[in-house]
Structure formats: C-alpha cells, structure tokens
Amino acid sequence: WMQNIEWISTLRIMANYGVAGLYPPAYAYQRTIGLTSYLGNPAATFDQYGNDDLGPERKHSAEVGLNLSLWDHRISIGFSYYNSITRNAIFNVPLAPSVGEGSCLKNVGRIRNEGYEASLRVQLFHNKDWDIAMQGSLNTNHNKVISNGGAPTFSIGGFSTSSIQAVVSEGESVGYLRGSRATLMADGTTKVEK
Question: 14-38: per-residue pLDDT in tens?
C-alpha cells in the first residue's frame, strides 16, 4: 500500500525483546584462604569470602523504533526507545565489620535502564562525484536502582572515603555521587567540610 506514497523512500518499524545473562566470576561462590608470611613462616589469612547464594544476573530488554527515509533518501530519520531491567545485579557489597572481611559479591536488587536514540540526516547536495549532508543524533540513558534487595547504601568507588563516593542507593542512579565538600589547600592537604 505504500507504493503509492512517492515521498516515502523506506519505512522500517522494529521491535524486539530479549534476555541476556552475566555469570559471576568463576569460583566466586567459594570461600578461600590466602597465604602470607609472618616472621619468616607461612601464615593463613582470609582471601575470598565466597557466597553460596551467588547466581547470574539477568537483563530483560525491550526496544521499539523506526527508520524512515523521505524524498529519494534526501532526509533520513531514525528513532528508538529502549527499556531494560537487570535482575539480581552483581555488586561487590561491603560486609559487616564483625565478619572480619571487607566485601563479597552479591546479587543485589533490580536496576532499570531506559532511553531514546534519535538521528536525523539531511542531504543538502548530491551529484555523481560528491555530496554534502548534515547529520545529528541525540541519545539519552537514564538508570535507576529500583531495589537494592534490602542492602544498605554502599560505595562502589570514589575519590576518598572522607570526601566523595560513588554509591548504590535505592531510588538513585548507579554510581550516584555523594559526600562532603573537599577543598585542596595550598600546602597540598585536603580540607573536608560536611
């Protein structure tokens, strides 16, 4: 039925849904012991904490979009929207100090990623030897921790524990920055203000 619409060169409508998985590192579920030297003799230390409940994370993704070319491909438009939910996301979560170890890998909550991708290409001039065209695109990505599985807010990195940290916190983006204001002083030290 589109053959009679001369100003539309092509129109493609697409939609997809998929599930992808990410397995934890090999043997991450096992508790291990490391060896170090103490007074010239081997000594056992904690190594990997291990987690018997550790499983793969799964990302469920859906996307819809279209590609449209007009007037003998002189104008091309692309647009798509995607939405994905990661379930059982794997993070290195700090443990309680009473455990005696720093952190371990855990499946923590759900994360949503969604956004738009839009592009526009306009052909300004064309002949058999060369052409002039302008092209632009706009891409967005918004992520949010929907649930952290009951875990308290935890750091996944940052500048310093006394200034700014990238954290995982329910209701915020992954890597949300929080912390105190740090000012670099003339003598090279840092002054931290709450």
Answer: 999 999 998 888 888 888 888 888 8
| Residue 9 structure tokens | 């060169």
Name the 3-class secondary structure at 156. Answer: strand
**Residue 132 amino acid letter:** I
Closest CA to 148 of 179, 188, 183, 107: 107
Distance of CA 190 to the CA centre of its chain: 31
CA 24 and chain centroid, separation? 16
In single-letter form, the type of residue at position 45 comes to T
The CA–CA distances, whole Å, from 87 to 69, 147, 149, 156 equal: 37, 9, 10, 18
Give the model confidence (pLDDT) of 50-93 as tens digits: 888 888 999 999 999 999 999 888 899 999 999 999 999 888 88
Residue 99 per-residue DSSP state: G
CB proximity list for 72: less than 8 A, separation 6 or greater: 9
pLDDT tens column, 96-141? 777 777 778 888 889 999 999 999 999 988 888 888 889 999 999 9
The 3-class SS string of 20-62 reads: EEECCCCCCCCCCEEEEEECCEEEEEECCCCCCCCCCEEEEEE
**Nearest partner of 46 among 36, 58, 61, judged by Cα:** 36
